[in-house]
Specification:
Two copies of one chain form a homodimer. Chain A has helices spanning 49-54, 64-69, 73-78, 82-86, 98-103, 130-140, 158-178, 196-208, 225-237, 253-260, 271-277, 309-312, 317-325, 329-355, 359-369; strands at 6-12, 19-25, 28-32, 34-37, 59-62, 91-94, 108-110, 115-118, 125-128, 144-146, 185-190, 213-216, 245-247, 266-269, 280-283, 286-289. Chain A is of the alpha/beta class and 372 residues long. The longest helix of chain A is centred in the last third of the chain and has 27 residues, at 329-355. Chain A is globular, with a radius of gyration of 20 Å. At the A-B interface, helix 13 and helix 14 of A face helix 13 and helix 14 of B.
């Protein structure tokens, strides 16, 4: 197995299990817990790589499904890999394409071999499998490669969840065999649906394959928040301490707190950039709907004391509201920069709290002021 | 009359009349000839004020018509003026709103008093006049204020052009009376349609009012290029040497050369940012249609040797093509930055050529390689 990705545990909060660590990658070492902005189609929407660097982003995501369809892995390989193609010299994590393919519903068909599907763009017939996903991700040259798994929908009955999870294990073995790149690290993904027994089994099977990191998959798919927390706890209980743990698709501070308290180190989500494009600014007291008339004459920045590009340069709510209402692209950039900074900065503070033995207080204080 | 705006003639090319100068404004002094990017709605589309500063932009435009409707002059005044509202500390020129209002066609009615029109946004009845335009532009606090005039459509008969130009003179007198701000300079606008006699008369009447600068209006409205050049020559012949001359709405290098050779110092146009959003990159050899399949595997920058943000950072045609095809906002930014840089840099080189007594050679050399 490649030694490209290693994890260094710096401090563990004994009361909760929250961890502060460092994730070492071929493109730099990054403090964890970490939030990873999503650059689906080789661009974090509305922002530049320079802006991501300025705000302290360390790892960003690329989506294999989207890049596989457009512009295609061959083109990116020809360009020198995804880092070079999109001008990003810090770390990149790519997902396996599985999540998007399974989301296609009627347009896809699952077999043991892999998934046949029709492109959401032009209906062309395509095929993804553990082997194809690994080959695509090797062409992309991401630092962290995700195993090709099935994200079990919610709700799913026990039999389905059991069969699917077993297949995910078999697929993980095939991924492991195919992924031979020395400068990339393959993460396994724990499934098991909403069944404690299956979660434990999946975690035992996947960790037996000895990956350099593990994701907890199949959560945040519509299940009640309490159930998600329970499944998260069950899953991380069987993950080794010396490897990073990644919870996919979670991007709000309240969930960060819940997941970090259950031993999660890595997060990604389109949430901050997606809601920015809908005119939402994230703040410590909740969301601010910028188009609302209450901000017409509000000449304050989005959040006082915020160090993001928009706030530290004095762009006001009134100005951003105006830009948003009249359809100016710059509004989307300012809001995206603000929201990404908000989550990255939140994670920096959260990590400081773990290091200073005050994680629980930090979480309590934050949640008292936060409105979902 | 306010002394806010002054012009310093540095060098005149005797063969052509091309001028190199410096325009002094309350927000800095800028070399001329100058290209001024357009920030219609308090934002130069897809780029930030920092990016404009980095590329060496000196003066940008704001559109009175658009800002009058949204967010309204009162709000911008309350925010501390347009500079502060949009975070731009170099110079701003605002137009009078006349051009947009006249473009509304059936939706507007002209009287001696001013123009009644319906907003293109919600149909609300509005009124603009020399006095209202001046009051709005004083509220905006632009450095250079344009007189409220009628841009005569093409074609127009002699009688219409004569009456309209005479009214533009009367309106210019009313603008002059109303514009009392000490830190803003009011430019008069020469009209006269496509008639030499009326152009001369308008130029004589408008310059008699002794403005700190003059625009040549009513050109680039659909007339043949030869006619435009002729009317431009007639108009500038009657403008004083010690004042800047501004040709409104022209934004391609071939026209810059023709107009600078006829004594023009200032230009604005939405062209570079508008075509960027349509996927066009401007280069010294003509336009590059980025979505074309010929760029799929083209891993070169938009234009070799270009110093714009996109090119100097190595963003390739293949990458920008990909972003444009999949609808990523960042493509629009990269192309806008490139096109704006292209025109600003073109103007810097053109000015150097005037200073080095080789303007005609510069123009000939450029036009030989340039494809419209």
């Amino acid at each position: 197995m490649s030694k490209a990705i290693t994890y260094e545990l710096i401090k563990k909060d004994e009361a909760t299990g929250a961890r502060a660590g460092i994730l070492h990658t071929p493109h730099g070492s990054y403090p964890t817990p970490i939030f990873m902005p999503v650059g689906t189609q080789a661009s974090v929407k509305a922002v530049s790589p320079d802006e991501l660097t300025d705000m302290g982003a360390g790892i960003i995501l690329g989506n294999t499904y989207h890049l596989f369809l457009r512009p295609g892995a061959d083109l990116i390989k020809e360009a020198g890999g995804l880092h070079k193609f999109m001008h990003w010299d810090r770390a990149i994590l790519t997902d396996s394409g599985g999540f998007q393919v399974f989301s296609l519903g009627e347009l896809r068909k699952i077999t043991e071999e892999g998934v046949t599907f029709r492109s959401h763009i032009d209906g062309a017939k395509k095929f993804l499998s553990p082997e194809v996903s690994m080959e695509v991700q090797m062409a992309l040259g991401s630092d962290i490669v995700m195993a090709f798994d099935e994200c079990i929908p919610y709700p799913a009955d026990f039999a389905y969840a059991k069969d699917s999870s077993a297949r995910t294990t078999r697929w993980a073995e095939r991924c492991r065999k195919t992924m031979t790149a020395e400068n990339q690290g393959l993460f396994g993904i724990v499934q098991g649906g909403m069944y404690r027994e299956l979660r434990e089994r999946s975690a035992r099977e996947i960790t037996a394959l000895d990956f350099p990191g593990y994701a907890v998959g199949g959560l945040s798919v519509g299940e009640p928040s309490e159930l998600m927390r329970e499944m998260l706890s069950v899953s991380t209980a069987f993950l080794p301490e010396d490897k990073p743990r990644y919870l996919m698709g979670v991007g709000t501070p309240d969930f960060f707190l819940a997941a970090v308290a259950r031993g999660i180190d890595m997060f990604d989500c389109v949430y901050p950039t997606r809601v920015a494009r809908n005119g939402l600014a994230m703040t410590a007291t909740g969301r601010l709907v910028i188009k609302n008339s209450e901000y017409t004459h509000d000449h304050r920045v989005l959040e006082e004391g915020c160090g993001c590009y928009a706030c530290r340069n004095g762009y006001t709510r009134a100005y951003i509201r105006h830009l948003f209402r009249v359809g100016e692209i710059f509004a989307l950039r300012l809001l995206s920069l603000h929201n990404l900074w908000f989550l990255l900065e939140f994670m920096r503070r959260l990590r400081e709290a773990i290091l200073a033995d005050r994680f629980s207080d930090f979480a309590t204080d934050f949640l008292q002021g936060y409105k979902k």
